[in-house]
Amino acid sequence: MYKKPETSIQKNNLLMGNYILIFKTTISTTIDRAKIIGKLYEGSQDIQLATVDIEDEDRILRIESVNPDIHDISKIMLHGGHHVSFLAGFEKANYGPTPMPAI
Fold it and tell me: Which of 13, 17, 42, 55 lies at a 20 to 30 A Cα distance from 67?
């Protein structure tokens, strides 16, 4: 089976860990939430997880990504008809899954 070799950028991203990006949005319905999350996954291979809390007054979009660049996310959101404001970004160490204790 052929496996595409990793680039130096991909290797560095694996070493640096993942980024958590937090945005304030204008997403207000579950239908809009599903559509925009689908567009985010389609528009960026770097996004590993995207969630939107529409119950929060700021309708928080939380993204886990291997790339901290917020511009692509902003473009996808605007093309989807939603405004977005970047609030915070954090680097998360990539330690892998937490082992479960033996029973």
Answer: 55
Q: What residues does 30 pair with on adjacent strands?
A: none
- What's the mean per-residue pLDDT of the chain? 81
SS3 46: coil
**Predicted pLDDT of residue 95:** 55
Q: What is the pTM of this model?
A: 0.72
Are 30 and 36 in contact, with CB atoms under 8 Å apart?
Answer: no
| CA separation for the pair 74, 92 (Å, rounded) | 21
Structurally, the chain folds into a number of domains equal to: 1
Residue 20 lies in a domain: yes
**41 within a domain of the structure (yes/no):** yes
